[in-house]
Design goal:
The complex is a heterodimer.
Chain A: H1 38-52, E1 60-64, H2 68-71, E2 81-84, H3 90-100, E3 105-111, H4 112-117, H5 120-128, E4 133-139, E5 142-143, E6 149-150, H6 173-180, E7 184-189, H7 193-205, E8 209-215, H8 231-237, E9 238-247, E10 262-266, E11 272-277, H9 287-299, E12 303-310, H10 317-321, H11 333-336, H12 339-349
Parallel strand pairs in A: 1-2, 1-3, 3-4, 4-8, 7-8, 9-12
Antiparallel strand pairs in A: 5-6, 7-12, 9-11, 10-11
Chain B: H1 9-15, H2 17-21, H3 28-36, H4 40-51, H5 54-60, H6 65-68, H7 71-74, H8 81-91, E1 110-114, H9 118-127, E2 133-137, H10 146-149, H11 158-170, E3 174-176, H12 184-190, E4 195-198, E5 204-205, E6 220-222, H13 223-231, E7 241-245, H14 249-260, E8 265-269, H15 281-289, E9 293-295, E10 298-306, E11 309-322, E12 328-340, E13 343-346, E14 350-351, E15 385-387, H16 390-393, H17 398-416, E16 428-433, E17 435-437, E18 440-441, H18 460-463, H19 477-484, E19 492-496, H20 506-510, E20 516-519, H21 524-527, E21 542-544, E22 554-558, H22 567-571, E23 577-585
Parallel strand pairs in B: 1-2, 1-4, 2-3, 4-15, 6-13, 7-8, 7-13, 8-9
Antiparallel strand pairs in B: 5-14, 10-11, 11-12, 16-23, 17-18, 19-23, 20-22, 21-22
Helix pairs in contact in B: 3-4, 3-8, 4-8, 5-8, 9-17, 13-14
The chains are: A alpha/beta, B alpha/beta.
Bound molecules: flavin-adenine dinucleotide, thiamine diphosphate, iron/sulfur cluster (3 copies) and magnesium ion.
Chain lengths: 351, 604
């Protein structure tokens, strides 16, 4: 880490968003992570994406569990709301908050340990409910915070820093989410902001559960030779299949794309994601085919990146449960609370 | 773009904007750090090495370094570089013992310097330690040139001049005062000198030939001559109403001096609007603080003389059209206006004049009497005769005269040792890491948002009581402590090692001023638009690395707004970035190669 906070001095030619703010206005506290940690890079990508979407800090809720990755919600958008939950329990906090106020933007940041080890059950149910949130896994294959034990995403044969070899099969969050019926599934790499930032923006605008699994090398415990989650290994084995351009509502699509290789997806609010298919035969709207393709490539040691599956029409939690249209705190007390007589009537229905 | 060649001596030198802008290449950030540590004498010596007269320059330097200062690109105001130089000079201890020893046995070569101004004194300063005999001829009774005769003592006290000039004379210069050189032919033929340096300045004030000039002569003065008469106490008073014609720095000294000699109302008359003034902003500010009136758009028409006595001046009232870039496209006269005056001072410029140099000696001049001087060697068209300071290319300033002196001294040294004056030692740059530990650097790298400190002045009531009350009081200890922290340490360079970079983006993300980008290579103009923040200042360099190992992209740094905070190096997990101090070696006469050093007898 560095001990000197990033000074306020800034470049006068920094671009400004629709609110007249620069990226610097969306920064957070000084990171305490190791210098070179992939997580910091994802923090920077999140900052950029949120700034680019001109979100107002007070409309943002940042949620996380425990881990180096989970610490990072403190490192962007100081003006947002935040909750650091017990290890692996971030989805239930997100669930509760989202149920109470559907008008905010929810960003969950978690680790491969927090999500796939201790928090696997919670994660699955958040997907089932199609909870309207952006869920980022900062995936480094280890428990960074507790000094580098293999996590549930470590690949078979991957070597730990001291030489131990992992023999258990990994849980792939992308394949898991495919099976569980998630409505937005992407994979990316902390070292590729050009791909990651538009994915984060699309995920923020997606109505429903948007999962982005981001390979994020742990420079301290998992960036050595023999690791399958190092910077060098990731760069050699990742294969972009679908790159996304997120096009907000008011903005024109400027570039002309060759037909057959691009696929504009209209989001619920009318904004669009323009997908550029790098692999012609990949179809990010066909769950079964996409899933098969991903597994086939994984077998050959390549992991696909980009927006791997999207369905903007799937109903999210509030629609599924027919909840009120407005945040609960804006309802009058008599609407919110049935009173003792009302309670009696409800209870009577079950007697 | 091809990868940047940082081994070129200019690359890192240019990053140190102040040092690059200083004609004498003073290592500004180094002396500011020394002041911060309370090492005033060391700070003084870093200055003296380059600019010879830190006490003088710390008060009156033209300070080309300040408009160049990086701080003014991230904030409003530059670091008060000049004021800090004065702090070093005011608080230094004994330093003469640190100067090079003067050889008791001389090298047998004898150099003449004409004029005891800045340029000649610098030549003497550089050549005396090498064993030369140096004779300085000065027409006046005191050394110092315009620094003594024209810069008023309320800006530059005599004591400061005496000390710094005295040190050079004390090195053994043979100073011949009241000794005007009247014939160059005579000097060359019978002086017995191995080289001659002409440092006689640009002594002729420009005339304003308008009707009434002759009739009013008794009350119309040429600025630099008048200031000289004031300095030598030949003139002790002036009328109540004074007009100064011209708005250069000479005009500022004339108006403020008038106020101290009894003038009640002083107006500086300018032909053009304010943005075209030649005077430095701070000199204008100081004059206005003393209630000098500055009247723009008045073009002198004639001197008005009644009953044989000057009563004032008539001016054309001007109007100008400007284009988008602020240039004048048209001008017209819209009327005339009379301004009453008891005295008028002309401050409209200076010229060279060499009536004492015969034109058949092989020393060529152009039709304006400006000598043909080589801009690198300072040699005239006659080998062995050199020019420097205002005498070489017309009026400039003290710091340029110093640098001319250094360069001429190199040439004189080489000439006297039988070496080609053109084959000079090239400048170089040395780098030294400033890493102390994991996140520790041997400089204060935390950006300090302090604003520029204001110079305290003697009150308006007190300062006019005597001619030589120095107006500026100098920084207090508290002001100094705050101002030194404003320096961004631009000489602590960000040095990149492409083969170590793992492209983790940590440096990109932490850089407060967004000057780093990892991206695909491209032509410079296009690359400048593709950075995290567009690089809009074409005067500032782009650093482009060799291709990076993992992706073949390049690391690009826009030098423009780097605040040298070292956070990139602190964040880098592989130490691909390091913070290294650049020492610019700007050669002087003493640095010339051994072939050039005279062999001295073994026994002293
Ligand atoms: C009013 C005024 C204010 C200025 N203020 C500033 C300022 O604030 N800051 C700044 O940086 N610069 C200032 N300058 C400019 C600066 O003073 C000069 O650029 C600088 O002094 C030039 O130095 P020099 O050695 O070339 O010549 P000079 O200083 O002009 O010295 C030349 C010397 O040669 C002598 N001399 C001339 N002819 C002969 C001869 N034939 N024989 C013997 N001796 C001779 C002269 O008497 C003089 O002493 C100012 C100039 C003026 C006129
Ligand atoms: C209930 C509970 N069990 C165990 C821990 C110890 N613990 C802290 S962080 C962590 C693993 C974090 O791994 P991951 O989510 O991958 O985060 P990383 O540090 O790798 O970013 C563990 C096991 C804990 N804090 N709480
Ligand atoms: S231990 Fe690993 S995951 Fe944690 S901060 Fe350091 S590099 Fe990042
Ligand atoms: S020193 Fe490094 S981090 Fe600091 S401003 Fe310069 S490039 Fe950016
Ligand atoms: S922090 Fe170091 S390793 Fe990382 S991108 Fe910057 S220079 Fe390269
Ligand atoms: Mg982890």
């Amino acid at each position: 880490m560095t001990f000197i906070p990033k000074p306020k001095v800034r470049n006068p030619s920094l671009p400004r968003n629709d609110l007249g703010l620069t990226r610097r206005d969306y920064e957070g506290a000084l990171s305490t992570l190791c210098a070179g940690c992939g997580h910091d890079s994802i923090t920077a990508a999140l900052t950029e994406a949120i700034w680019g979407e001109s979100l107002e800090p007070q409309n943002l809720v940042k949620l996380s569990g425990i881990g180096c990755s989970s610490k990072t919600t403190a490192y962007f958008v100081s003006g947002g709301h935040g909750f650091n939950s017990v290890h692996g329990r971030m989805p239930s906090i997100a669930m509760g908050a989202n149920a109470a106020n559907r008008n905010l933007h929810y960003i969950g940041v978690s680790g491969d340990g927090d999500t796939l080890s201790i928090g696997l059950g919670q994660f699955c149910h958040a997907i089932r409910r199609n909870l309207n949130m952006l869920y980022v896994i900062e995936n480094n294959g280890v428990y960074g915070l507790t000094k580098g034990q293999f996590s549930a995403s470590a690949d078979i044969g991957s070597k730990a820093k001291k030489g131990d070899v992992n023999r258990q099969p990994p849980i792939d969050p992308v394949l898991l989410a495919m099976n569980l019926g998630a409505s937005f599934i992407a994979r990316s790499f902390s070292g590729d902001k050009a791909q990651l930032v538009p994915l984060l923006q699309a995920g923020l605008r997606h109505r429903g559960f948007a999962l982005i699994d981001v390979i994020s090398p742990c420079v301290t415990f998992n960036d050595h030779e023999g690791s399958t989650k190092s910077y060098a290994y990731t760069r050699e084995h990742y294969e972009p299949v679908v790159n996304a351009d997120f096009v907000p509502l008011q903005r024109e699509i400027v570039a002309d794309y060759a037909p057959g290789e691009t696929l504009p997806i209209v989001m619920h609010d009318g904004s669009r994601i323009v997908l550029h298919k790098v692999a012609r035969d990949y179809d990010p709207t066909d769950r079964v085919a996409a899933s098969a393709y991903i597994q086939a490539r994984l077998k050959e040691g390549e992991f696909l990146t980009g927006l791997l599956y999207v369905d903007p029409t799937q109903k999210e939690f509030h629609e599924l449960n027919d909840t009120p249209d407005v945040p609960l705190n804006s309802l009058a007390p008599e609407v919110l609370s049935p009173g003792s007589r009302g309670l009696e009537r409800i209870l009577a229905r079950y007697r | 773009m091809p990868p940047t060649d940082t081994s070129h001596p200019d690359y890192y030198h240019r990053v140190v904007d102040c040092q690059w802008a200083c004609p004498a290449h003073t290592d500004v950030p180094e002396y500011i750090r020394l002041i911060a540590q309370g090492r005033f004498t060391d700070a003084y010596m870093v200055n003296r090495q380059a600019n010879v007269f830190p006490g003088i320059l710390g008060r009156v330097c033209d300070r080309p370094c300040e408009p160049a200062c990086r701080r003014s690109r991230v904030e409003d105001k530059p670091v008060a570089i000049c004021r800090l130089k004065r702090v070093a000079a005011d608080h230094k201890d004994e330093f003469v013992s640190r100067l090079p020893k003067i050889p008791a046995v001389k090298n047998g070569k004898h150099v003449a310097c004409i004029g005891a101004g800045t340029a000649s004194l610098t030549v003497a300063n550089d050549l005396l330690p090498l064993g030369y005999r140096v004779t300085i001829f000065e027409q006046f009774g005191e050394p110092g040139g315009l620094m003594r005769t024209n810069i008023p003592s309320f800006r530059l006290p005599q004591a400061v001049l005496d000390e710094e000039i005295g040190v050079i004379i004390g090195m053994g210069a043979d100073l011949k005062l009241n000794h005007p050189v009247k014939s160059m032919r005579e000097l060359l033929a019978h002086g017995g000198f191995d080289a001659v340096f002409v440092g006689s300045g640009a002594p002729k004030g420009k005339e304003l030939k308008l009707p009434g000039r002759e009739e009013g002569a008794a009350n119309i003065h040429i600025g630099i001559e008048w200031l000289e008469s004031v300095a030598f106490e030949h003139v002790k008073s002036i009328g109540r109403e004074v007009l100064i014609i011209g708005v250069g720095n000479t005009a500022m000294d004339c108006c403020r001096t008038s106020l101290r000699l009894g003038a009640q109302h002083v107006k500086v008359m300018a032909r053009k609007p304010r943005q075209f003034f030649k005077a430095s902003d701070w000199e204008l500010d100081d004059a206005e603080e003393e209630n000098v009136g500055i009247i723009v758009n008045r073009s002198p028409k004639r001197f008005v003389v009644e009953n044989g006595r000057l009563t004032g001046m008539l001016f054309d009232v001007m109007e100008y059209d400007l284009d988008g870039a602020g240039r004048i496209t048209a001008e017209r006269v819209t009327g005339e206006e009379f301004f009453a005056a008891d005295d008028v001072i002309l401050a409209i410029g200076q010229e060279n004049a060499f009536p004492w140099i015969e034109r058949d000696l092989g020393i060529e001049f152009d039709k304006w009497s400006v000598p043909a001087v080589d801009p690198v060697t300072f040699q005239s068209t006659r080998p062995g005769v050199f020019f420097g300071g205002d005498a070489a290319f017309g009026p400039k300033n003290i710091i340029w005269a110093v640098e001319h002196g250094h360069q001429a001294a190199i040439s004189i040294h080489r000439h006297c040792q039988g070496e080609a004056v053109t084959e000079r030692l090239a400048p170089g740059v040395n780098l030294q890491s400033r890493k102390m530990g994991m996140h520790e650097w041997s400089y204060s790298n935390d950006y300090n948002p302090a604003e520029r400190r204001l110079m305290p002045h003697v009150s308006l009531k007190e300062r006019f009581k005597k001619l030589d009350i120095e107006v500026e009081l100098g920084y207090t200890a508290e002001q100094t402590a705050a101002e030194v922290q404003r320096c961004l340490n631009c000489d602590i360079q960000t040095v990149f090692e492409a083969k170590l970079c793992i492209e983790c983006d940590a440096c990109i993300d932490i850089c407060p001023t967004d000057c780093l980008t990892i991206t695909a290579d491209g032509p410079e103009a296009e690359l400048r638009t593709r950075l995290r923040a567009p690089a809009k200042n074409p005067d500032q360099l782009l650093y482009v690395s060799a291709p990076l190992k993992q992706t073949g992209r390049v690391m690009v740094k826009d030098e423009d707004l780097c605040v040298h905070c070292g956070l990139c190096a602190e964040r880098c997990p592989t130490a691909a970035w390091d913070m290294q101090k650049s020492h610019v070696a700007w050669p002087h006469a003493e640095d010339q190669p051994p072939s050039c050093q005279p062999s001295l007898p073994k026994i002293a």
